[in-house]
Amino acid sequence: MPANRIVHLSKMTGVSGSEGHLLVLLRGLRQRGLDVRLWILVEPDKPLDAYAAELEAAGVPVEQIPIRRDLDPALWRDLVARLRAVQPDAVHTHLFHADLYGTFAARRVGVPYVVSSCHNDDKFRRRTPIRLLLRALWRRTDAGIAISDAIRRFSIEVEGARPDQIRTIHYGLDPASIDAPAGMRTELSDQIGAPPDALLVGSVCRLIEQKGLIDGLRGFAQVARDVPEAHYVLAGDGPLRGALEAEAIQLGVADRVHFLGWRDDARAVMSALDLLLAPSLWEGFGLVFLEAMALGVPILSTCVSAIPEVVIDGETGWLVPPHDADSVAGALREALEHPPLLMARGRAGRARLEAQFTVERMVDQTVEVYRDLGAQG
Fold first, then answer.
1. Which residues are within 8 A (CB) of 7 and not within 5 positions of it... i.e. 6 or more apart?
2. Residue 20 CB: number of other CB atoms within 10 A?
3. How would you list the strands of the sheet with 166-168, edge to edge?
4. Phi/psi at 309 (nearest 5 deg)?
């Protein structure tokens, strides 16, 4: 029996990588004629009305289902009742809470197929109780999709997925969907008090440990002494903002480091940058890299997790070891002192996106997963 009616399930507290991915994927699946819908597990005080409305405008039905705590028996009962009413051919889960509740609820109801998309290799997934639970979930899952080869290896080696059970499907992005507003460069320079000819390095992300921003800041501080026209902007917010602001003061570069806070025009900010600085400590994929490539912005990142699958060192950007501010500084210096190199690697990134990370490829490969389930059944 082919899998055509598919419920996607994901817990969301905001809109970032996996959420942006689902916006693109579900629209594409709908256009292929599949009956897909999205059930969002939302915390009661964090509804995602605008996100849901965007998908519904594209013809994808969306329901927001409350999750009140990590262990929520009422949620499991609610999902069981909903699945009985809808009777989907498959449940496709994303991220840990959806895997946990969605898999067991689907099996309780007798949904023919369960698919799990693996988006990250977060540290908590290595803890023994979680690993045992993940292994139990994989035994109840028919197929898995990893967003990178690195995540696929993690799912096999740490979580217990079978090699023949999980395949890699990279994120895809339509470059035409990424706007570069005219005048944004001037607007951002004026906002931070930088001259029109300033060199703008930027990080666009949550201010959390994973993003390695302390290394980026310390690397920038080394370069700032030699490249006085360079400024560093951080678009995003998070628990490390206070510590990063204090570090900028301690390093003597507070006047050259600009914290923009959370921005609903993050892509527009990115379009104004000369270089995206993303010194992550781990990364399941990093949709922000595709967004930068679409805008022709070169990338300085780290050679960890999935990043080398996306950013090619010496071709579309620079890759340095993690936890290495000195290497960040060296790459930054080369980039900022050679503007033609920045431009060339930005163009190469755009070309790589158009060749390797298309929406059509991502959607076609996902449809193939569903078709293979039907062939097996």
1. 36, 37, 38, 39, 83, 86, 88, 90, 91, 92
2. 17
3. 62-66, 35-42, 5-12, 90-94, 113-118, 143-146, 166-168
4. -75, -20
Distances in whole angstroms, Cα of residue 41 to Cα of each of 33, 37, 118, 340: 25, 13, 17, 46
Same domain, 256 and 346: yes
Range of the domain at 134: 5-172+358-376
Q: Are residues 141 and 208 in the same domain?
A: no
* Same domain, yes or no: 151 and 253: no
> Is 309 in the same domain as 362?
no
Residues 155 and 223 in one domain: no
SS3 of 73-86: the string is: HHHHHHHHHHHHHH
**176 and 143 Cβ atoms separated by less than 8 Å:** no
Q: Which residue has the tokens 């696929």?
A: 152
Instruction: Check whether residue 78 and residue 183 sit in a common domain.
Output: no
Tell me how crowded residue 162 is: count the other CB atoms within 10 A of its CB.
12
pLDDT tens for the 377 residues of the chain, in order:
667 899 999 999 877 778 889 999 999 999 999 999 999 999 998 899 999 999 999 999 999 999 998 889 999 999 999 999 999 999 999 999 999 999 999 999 999 999 999 998 888 899 999 999 999 999 999 999 999 999 999 999 999 999 999 999 999 999 998 888 889 999 999 999 999 899 999 999 999 999 999 999 999 999 998 999 999 999 999 999 999 999 999 999 999 999 999 998 999 999 999 999 999 999 988 889 999 999 999 999 999 999 999 999 999 999 999 999 999 999 999 999 999 999 999 999 999 999 999 999 999 999 999 999 977 65
Looking at the structure of the chain, the number of domains it has is 2
CATH number at residue 104: 3.40.50.2000
Residue 234 makes CB contacts below 8 A (sequence gap 6+) with 202, 203, 207, 213, 244, 257, 258, 259, 260
Whether residues 14 and 146 fall in one domain: yes
CB-based contact 181:270 (threshold 8 Å)? no
Q: Let me know whether 145 and 273 are in one domain.
A: no
Beta carbons of 120 and 88 less than 8 angstroms apart: no
